[in-house]
Design brief:
The complex is a heterodimer.
Chain A (H helix, E strand, L loop, with lengths): L4 H10 L6 H22 L19 E2 L9 H6 L4 E2 L2 E5 L4
Antiparallel strand pairs in A: 2-3
Chain B lengths: L2 E12 L24 H4 L8 E2 H13 L3 E2 L6 E4 L9 E4 L6 E2 L2 E6 L2 E14 L3 E7 L2 E5 L6 E7 L6 H17 L12 E11 L9 E6 L2 H20 L7 E6 L4 E7 L9 E2 L10 H10 L4 H11 L4 H7 L3 H13 L4 H19 L10 H12 L5 H12 L7 H7 L8 H14 L1 H8 L4 H13 L6 H12 L1
Parallel strand pairs in B: 13-14
Antiparallel strand pairs in B: 1-11, 1-12, 3-6, 4-5, 4-16, 6-8, 7-8, 8-11, 9-10, 12-13, 14-15
Helix pairs in contact in B: 3-4, 6-7, 8-9, 8-10, 10-11, 13-15, 13-16, 14-15, 15-16
Classes of the chains: A mainly alpha, B alpha+beta.
Chain lengths: ~100, ~475
């Protein structure tokens, strides 16, 4: 599978990352290298091998359903760029 | 051409836990902004999610209640998209191997039972909230809701009308409350529906292009939105057009759906297994333990009411609409086993009517099932008439004499006159006083009889036993 220039622009759009033409070309080359590696891996016969969903052979630990967190809004908001009325303010990005 | 509507529903049920799905912050509704958003919910660097056992348990409960397969291992995935109220830049959800797979829900369409198959039900976290208010060109974000546990229940496209979709949604709504996994509060967004709607020529077995309609936070909107959307698609097709696959938003104020995003603009979520979460193992032993915790399910109760209490199917459906109502009915029937139908009638009539009027749930009913059963007992043993019982019910509702029907009847002198000697004497007097009616009745005017009964009831202020009055009066007039 080869990645096109348009694919790179589309991925950038989805991730809301601004790219200029030059950057996009660099990224296209880098991503294409990664795709080549994936192609090599995909050539390996994995028939009969159970898909691995996690690299470690352990299972999820669970916590009991108890509220353990107290309100620390002031501490968290002290390091936020901008807050008002208890809200975190972010640039308007959605129309 | 005849068209067939095809509908599948996606329901987001907020799970009734204390804490969030991956953090120990509270999910209590209506808190001051950002006071229930901890490091994990804010996605501060270095934090890790730890799965809440209560969340998994609730998903297992639903799986068992709908006869689904419980997957083990079950896997969590990252659903990537950009939105200001999604601090991590992805939502933890499930893609492959959701906790619940398959199963079905039986819905009662009048007297006909229909089966709606479920595709899956998966766990995920809710996002935060963006506030629409303008903060000098910035957006305000409240992350209290971020990380609230949701179970997304996805049905197969098995419904064929808006009415069927509503009944399915109501049945599911009742079920999640019944098994205690979701409070079902639609105003607070605890139970939200999205509908996938398509149309096709009747008789065709090929699915048409579907549109997903979002933002349906009441059963009425669900019905209206589906009707509007189906009509819209039929009009396009009849004009020779093509339905575009897209996500549409329902606008309740204008009763229409409109494009939110088309397939081309659709998100590419780039799902992949979340490396922060290990595969979830659900042991047989755990499943069995949850099975023990499940209450008798609505369907089983419905059937039992029909067979054991000889109730009509309709009554059984109404009484099992909520577990609280079914419990109320059963407690009352326990005290009055021979009068199940009387109990049913009163709960569906007087009790439900009063609850609706006051806008409260049966769990908050001021009359206990025991007190209620005592009242009905007095009807069935002839102490009071059904009509008087309604007045007693009213007094009980207001807590008079601690809701004790017997004391209220005694104190207000409402006891029915069942002494036939006394009634006979009274009837004799009334017959003498009303010779015209007597003559009319004997002359074949049935109405005159009712007028005489009315006179007797009036003279006793409604306390004469109506059945007895009828019998004695008939004897006297024949």
């Amino acid at each position: 599978m080869t990645l096109s220039f348009d694919d790179v622009r589309r991925i950038a759009d989805l991730a809301y990352i601004e790219t200029n033409e030059e950057e996009a070309h660099v990224v296209l080359a880098q991503l294409s290298d990664i795709f080549n590696l994936i192609e090599q891996m995909q050539a390996v016969d994995t028939l009969g091998v159970e898909p691995l969903s996690h690299a470690q052979d352990v299972t999820q630990r669970l916590r009991d359903d108890i509220v353990t967190e107290s309100d620390q809004r002031e501490r968290f908001q002290a390091i936020a760029p901008q807050v008002e009325e208890g809200l975190y303010l972010v640039p308007k990005v959605i129309e | 051409m005849q068209w067939e509507i095809v509908i599948g529903l996606e329901v987001h049920a907020q799970l009734s836990t204390q804490s969030k799905i991956f953090s120990g912050a509270s999910i209590a509704y209506g808190a001051i902004p950002n006071t229930q958003a901890c490091e994990v919910d804010l996605a501060l660097p270095g934090v890790l999610p730890v799965l809440n056992k209560g969340v998994v348990e609730r998903a297992i409960k639903l799986g068992l209640a709908v006869g689904a397969k419980i997957n083990s291992p079950s896997i969590f995935a990252r659903k990537n998209y950009f939105y200001p109220d999604l601090p991590k830049g992805y939502q933890i959800s499930q893609y492959e191997l959701p906790v619940v797979e398959g199963g079905c829900i039986k819905v009662q369409m009048g007297e006909v039972e229909k089966t709606v198959r479920l595709t899956r039900a998966h766990l995920e976290e809710d996002a935060g909230k963006s506030l629409h208010k303008d903060f000098h060109g910035m957006t305000g974000i409240d992350l209290n809701r971020a990380g609230t546990p949701l179970l997304e229940i996805v049905s197969e496209p098995d419904m064929r009308s808006s009415a069927e979709a509503v009944i399915y949604a109501k049945t599911l709504h009742s079920l999640v409350r019944w098994i205690g996994i979701c409070d079902g509060n639609m105003q607070e967004g605890s139970f939200r529906c999205d509908a996938n709607v398509s149309v096709r020529p009747k008789g065709s077995d090929k699915l048409g292009t579907r549109c997903e309609v979002k933002n349906l936070n009441s059963f009425r909107f669900l019905e209206k939105a589906i009707e509007f959307e189906a009509k819209r698609q039929i009009e396009i097709l009849e004009d020779g057009g093509v339905v575009r696959q897209e996500t549409r938003l329902y606008d309740a104020d204008r009763n229409e759906t409109r494009t939110m995003r088309s397939k081309e603009e659709a998100h590419d979520y780039r799902y992949f297994p979340d490396p922060d979460l290990m595969p979830l193992e659900i042991s047989e032993a755990w499943i069995n333990k949850v099975k023990q915790m499940l209450p008798e399910l609505p369907e089983a109760r419905r059937n039992r009411y029909v067979t054991a209490f000889d109730l009509p199917v309709y009554d059984a459906i109404v009484l099992t609409a909520t577990r609280e109502m079914a419990d109320f009915f059963e407690s009352a029937v326990k005290q009055l086993p021979s009068q199940a139908k009387l109990c049913a009638n009163w709960i569906m009539g007087e009790v439900s009517g009063r609850l609706n009027k006051e806008g409260i749930e049966i769990s908050d009913c001021p009359i206990s099932p025991g007190q209620f059963a005592t009242l009905l007992e007095r009807i069935s043993d002839g102490t009071i008439s059904g009509k008087t019982a309604k007045d007693v019910f009213d007094s009980m509702w207001h807590g008079e004499h601690d809701g004790n029907a017997d004391v209220i009847i005694e104190n207000k002198g409402l006891k029915q006159i069942s002494d036939s000697g006394e009634i006979e004497k009274l009837i004799d007097e009334i017959l003498i006083a009303n010779p015209q009616q007597v003559e009319d009745y004997r002359g074949g005017k049935e109405k005159a009889f009712n007028s005489l009964v009315g006179q007797v009831m009036k003279a006793t202020r409604g306390k004469a036993n109506p059945a007895q009055v009828n019998t004695i009066l008939k004897q006297k007039l024949s």
